[in-house]
Inverse folding.
C-alpha cells in the first residue's frame, strides 16, 4: 500500500511542476500584473512562492469564531503570544478551496480581500506584517483577485485520474 501511495504522490508532483504563477508572468494581462504587484507588497511575506505559504503560524486579524471558539496555536503551546495564530495556508488553487479560513467564515475571495482591507482586528497579537493595515481600493482588490485566479491549475484539479474511484 505504501508503494502504491508513493507512486501516486509522484504523479502529483510531476503534474504540479508547471503551474501559472511560477514566474510565468510574461503571459499575464495588465490586470494580473497589477494584482501581482499588489500581492508582493501586501501578502508575499506570509504567502510566499512557490507554495504561497512560509509554513509558519500567524495572526491575520480574525476575530475569534463564535462557534468553535478556536484559539489557534495557543491551544497547543499554551503561550498567550500564540493566540489566534493559525497555519498560513497555501494559495495554490485557492479559487476552488472555498470556504476560507480555519472555520470557513468567508465564502468568497472577495470576502477575504475585504477582510484584509477593512476587517483586520488590531490586537497586540496581530502579525507585525499587518499592523500598518492593508490599503486596497475596490479596483485594486479586483486586480489582486485576478492574480489569485492565476494560481489555479485546472488540468491538475480536474484530472479524471484523481477523481474518486467509481463503484
Ligand atoms: C501575517 C501573515 C499574513 C499576511 C501578510 C497575509 N495572510 Fe493570508 N492568511 C494568513 C493566515 C495565518 C491565514 C489562515 C487563517 C485561518 O486559518 O483562519 C490566511 C488565510 C488566507 C486565505 C484563505 C486560505 C484558505 O485556504 O482558507 C487567503 C485567500 C489569503 N490568506 C489571502 C491573503 C492575501 C490576498 C493577502 C494580502 C492582501 C494575505 N493573505 C496576507 C496569513 C497572512
Amino acid at each position: 500500500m505504501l508503494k502504491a501511495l508513493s507512486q501516486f504522490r509522484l504523479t502529483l508532483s510531476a503534474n504540479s511542476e508547471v503551474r501559472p504563477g511560477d514566474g510565468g508572468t510574461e503571459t499575464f494581462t495588465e490586470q494580473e500584473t497589477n494584482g501581482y504587484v499588489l500581492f508582493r507588497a501586501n501578502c508575499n511575506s506570509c504567502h510566499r512562492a512557490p507554495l504561497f505559504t512560509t509554513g509558519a503560524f500567524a495572526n491575520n486579524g480574525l476575530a475569534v469564531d463564535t462557534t468553535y471558539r478556536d484559539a489557534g496555536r495557543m491551544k497547543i503551546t499554551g503561550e498567550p503570544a500564540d493566540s489566534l495564530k493559525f497555519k498560513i495556508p497555501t494559495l495554490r488553487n485557492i479559487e476552488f478551496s472555498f470556504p476560507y479560513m480555519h472555520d470557513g467564515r468567508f465564502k468568497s475571495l472577495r470576502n477575504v480581500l475585504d477582510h484584509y482591507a477593512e476587517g483586520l482586528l488590531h490586537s497586540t497579537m496581530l502579525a507585525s506584517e499587518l499592523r500598518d493595515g492593508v490599503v486596497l481600493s475596490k479596483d485594486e482588490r479586483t486586480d489582486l483577485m485576478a492574480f489569485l485566479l492565476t494560481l489555479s491549475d485546472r488540468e491538475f484539479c480536474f484530472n479524471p485520474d484523481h477523481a474518486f474511484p467509481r463503484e
